[in-house]
Design goal:
Blueprint: E1 9-12, H1 18-29, E2 33-37, H2 51-62, E3 67-70, H3 77-91, E4 96-99, H4 114-142, E5 145-150, H5 162-182, E6 187-194, H6 204-216, H7 223-228, H8 238-243, E7 255-258, E8 263-265, H9 283-289
Parallel strand pairs: 1-2, 1-4, 2-3, 4-5, 5-6, 6-7
Antiparallel strand pairs: 7-8
Helix pairs in contact: 1-2, 3-4, 4-5
Length: 306
C-alpha cells in the first residue's frame, strides 16, 4: 500500500469505535500519525472510558503505525482545544481534522426535552466547531490543512431525530462557510454523509424493538432489512482518506454520500421554481397563484392519518 498520508498528522474525533476507528486505522496504514480521540461514553453520551481510544491506538501500534489517545470531550471549548493540542504535543504539527464524534438522543419532537436537544447539539454541532476553530488557527498559519466533517442523511429529514437532524444539517452549512473562510489559506473543508453499520444506526431503541419482536413472535422492524445491507465501517471510508490527501486540493465546500458501493456528490440547493410580480406579493395573490405554480405537484411526506 502506498503511504499517501506519509508525514501527515491527523486528529480523528470519536475514533474509539465504528466509523471513527476505521478511519484512524486506514489513516495510519496510509502513513499518518493519528490522535485517536474518544470520550469512551455510551451511544447516548453518558459515561466515559479510556478503553475504546486505547484499543485503537494499540491496534495501530501493532501494525507499525504511530498514534496517541485523547479522552477529552468535543462538547466543550476546552475539550476541543486540548484535542488539537494533543497533536502538537505528540507530533509537533497538525494537517488533518476529521470531526466524527457523535451521540443519539432520539425522541419525537413533542416528547423531546431541552436536555436531549442540547446534548446532541453540543456533541455534534458545537463539537465540530470546538475542534475546527483551534485547528484553523494552526492551518491559517501554515497555509495548509484538511477538514472532513461528518454529516448525515438524517439531516435531510428523519422521523424522531429533530435534534440529530438539525445538528447534522447545521454541520453542512458550517462546512460550506469554513470552506470559504479557509480556502484562501490552502485549507479545504468538506462533509460526508455516511451509510454504515454503527452503534448510531443500530440504536438502543432499535435493539429493544428487535428483542420485543423476538419475544412476541412478531416480525422484526422493516428497517432491519435496510441495516443488514449496510457496509461495515472499514468498507466505506476510503473517500474520507482521499479528501485528506494532497490530491483533493481542489475539492472544497462539498458534501458527499459515502457507502460501500456508492459515492455521490450532492448538488448544492438551488431554487427550482420562482414566481415574480411587479411590486410585492399579497396573501390574496398567493391564495390564487401558489396552488398552480410553486405548490403544483408537491406531495406531503407525512400526510395526516384518516
Amino acid at each position: 500500500m502506498s503511504k499517501r498520508l506519509q508525514g501527515k498528522v491527523a486528529v480523528i474525533t470519536g475514533a474509539g469505535r465504528g466509523i471513527g476507528a476505521a478511519e484512524a486505522i486506514l489513516f495510519a496504514k496510509e502513513g499518518a500519525k493519528v490522535v485517536v480521540n474518544d470520550l469512551g461514553g455510551g451511544g447516548d453520551g453518558g459515561g466515559a472510558s479510556k478503553s475504546p481510544a486505547d484499543e485503537v491506538v494499540a491496534e495501530i501500534k501493532k501494525m507499525g503505525g504511530e498514534a496517541v489517545s485523547n479522552y477529552d470531550s468535543v462538547a466543550t471549548t476546552e475539550g476541543g482545544e486540548k484535542i488539537i493540542k494533543t497533536a502538537i504535543d505528540a507530533f509537533g504539527r497538525l494537517d488533518i481534522l476529521v470531526n466524527n464524534a457523535g451521540i443519539l438522543r432520539d425522541k419525537m419532537v413533542y416528547n423531546m426535552s431541552p436536555e436531549e436537544w442540547d446534548i446532541v447539539m453540543k456533541v455534534h454541532l458545537y463539537g465540530t466547531f470546538n475542534c475546527t476553530k483551534p485547528a484553523c488557527v494552526l492551518f491559517r498559519q501554515q497555509k495548509s490543512g484538511r477538514i472532513i466533517n461528518t454529516a448525515s442523511e438524517s439531516g435531510l429529514g428523519n422521523m424522531g431525530q429533530a435534534n440529530y437532524s438539525a445538528a447534522k444539517e447545521g454541520i453542512v452549512g458550517f462546512t460550506r462557510t469554513v470552506a470559504r473562510d479557509m480556502g484562501r489559506y490552502g485549507v479545504t473543508c468538506n462533509a460526508v454523509r455516511p451509510r454504515a453499520k454503527s452503534r448510531l444506526t443500530i440504536s438502543p431503541e432499535l435493539v429493544a424493538a428487535i428483542e420485543r419482536a423476538k419475544t412476541t413472535g412478531a416480525a422484526p422492524p422493516p428497517v432491519m432489512d435496510v441495516i443488514a445491507k449496510l457496509p461495515e465501517p472499514n468498507e466505506m471510508i476510503a473517500l474520507v482518506a482521499y479528501l485528506a490527501t494532497d490530491a483533493a486540493a481542489n475539492i472544497n465546500g462539498c458534501t458527499f454520500l459515502i457507502s460501500g458501493d456508492q459515492i455521490s456528490l450532492y448538488q448544492e440547493p438551488i431554487p427550482i421554481k420562482t414566481i415574480y410580480k411587479k411590486g410585492f406579493w399579497t396573501l390574496d395573490d398567493l391564495m390564487d397563484i401558489v396552488p398552480n405554480t410553486l405548490a403544483a405537484g408537491l406531495v406531503n411526506p407525512a400526510p395526516p392519518k384518516a
